[in-house]
Amino acid sequence: xxxxxxxxxxxxxxxxxxxxxxxxxxxxxxxxxxxxxxxxxxxxxxxxxxxxxxxxxxxxxxxxxxxxxxxxxxxxxxxxxxxxxxxxxxxxxxxxxxxxxxxxxxxxxxxxxxxxxxxxxxxxxxxxxxxxxxxxxxxxxx
Length: 142
Hints:
Layout: H1 11-59, H2 67-76, H3 90-102, H4 106-125, H5 131-139
Helix pairs in contact: 1-3, 1-4, 2-3, 4-5
């Protein structure tokens, strides 16, 4: 003999539960949407900060005495290709780098931002003698 379970909820209670579940779903979607917006805002903030930091760093002849060093840094460390770098002025190289940074995916912006934060912190505390060595440490390369 099959056991038939009686429905313990009346129609009104079922409607209330359904409405509550729909509200929970809407709230969850709003939370996820707000988190995505906040993440994008942080990435955009990091991107603007990077674009603000890079020109002064690249202009510093202590770290980049020759334009070829900027192009080398861009290609090897930032993964930005600059065609015919030997024919470009320092400002052109920097513009190309900044333009490319602006198009980088969010994950790359986050990685670069964290690396620059480490470099700036080290520069403020103890100074940097070998920029490229310190960059490799900051970015996590060997």
